[in-house]
Specification:
By secondary structure, the chain is α+β, with helices and mostly antiparallel strands. It has a single domain, classed as Alpha-Beta Plaits (2-Layer Sandwich). It is 28% helix and 38% strand. The chain has seven helices and eight strands; from the N terminus they run E-H-E-E-H-H-E-E-H-E-H-H-E-H-E. The chain has an eight-stranded antiparallel β-barrel with strand order 1-3-2-8-5-7-6-4. Strand 2 and strand 3 form a beta hairpin. The two termini are 22 Å apart.
Length: 206
Amino acid sequence: MGSGILAIWMDCAAEGEADFNEWYHREHFPERVGVPGFLKGVRYRAVEADRGYFTWYRTEEVGVLASKAYRDRLNDPTEWTERVMHVFRNTIRSAMTVEGEAGEASVGAWAAVLRADEELGAVDLEALAGAEGALSAMRWHLDMAATGSPTAEASIRGPDTQAARAVLVQASTEGAARRAAEALAGQGEVGVYALMAVLASEDLGG
């Protein structure tokens, strides 16, 4: 699996939420995952979190997120993208590198996500991934250079902020995700999320 991650936490204005979700699944997801070097995208909705949506993409390496192919997409938004960018709220967008992972399953129906603005203390990924109902755990750190300079899309939706560190625990049950969230509490902002969609690059039509 690749070592690059694009992690996005965000809210959406209520009046544009239906259009936002249609856009995400019908246009945005396949467009992003179709960029060379992107491996898959995973999208969640909040169950108990400070942001309504959480999405992460895995790439071959973090440099993909600074590549010309990807930057060209960000600087040439479609009409639908331009419309939807106006309903983005409270966006946190970070290009990150995987610094550790444990477990086998790549995607779970539920997730606990820790987001921190500074260095994390000890996080036992093996224990998190090995807990009852848990599937896998990953730890990420910010790559500010790959997060990049302003783009056409960013100019429409407004400034993003960044997370310095993150931990993702994927689980097969809501209870397992909540237990993982409890284990991660105290190191930053922790949320529990439910899976909405997964798209891998090999699933895209020719």
